[in-house]
Amino acid sequence: MISPAYRLRTFEEVVGILYETTYDEGALVARVGKISVYLPTEMEPVLHPLIGEKIGILRTDTGYLSRIIVTPRRKEQVNETSTQLDGCKEIGQ
Fold first, then answer.
1. Taking Cα atoms as reference points, which of 22, 16, 19, 6 lies closest to residue 66?
2. 2-35 tens-digit pLDDT
3. I want to staple 8 with a disulfide (CB 3.0 to 4.6 A). Which of 31, 33, 41, 59 is the partner?
4. Hey, CA dihedral for 41, 45, 46, 52, is it positive or negative?
5. Residue 1 lies in a domain
6. Residue 48 · residue 21 · CB < 8 Å
């Protein structure tokens, strides 16, 4: 069951897989794990590309910060992509 949307308090963070971003009466709602949180609409362009990633969103006294949580599986995927890109460079030279 998905909980109703929640407003983070100052220095509170939500961490989990970002499943979706939607709007509720003009407010941005991000579903992170089992928690839906209200966020400033300006964050939508930052969050939308991160759907499916494990992220953290921290509310500070000056705004919100987001980060990608690198898991061992994610790190492995990033390394594979880097290797593939390096291989393409070598082939193209």
1. 16
2. 568 999 999 999 999 999 999 998 899 999 999 9
3. 59
4. positive
5. no
6. yes
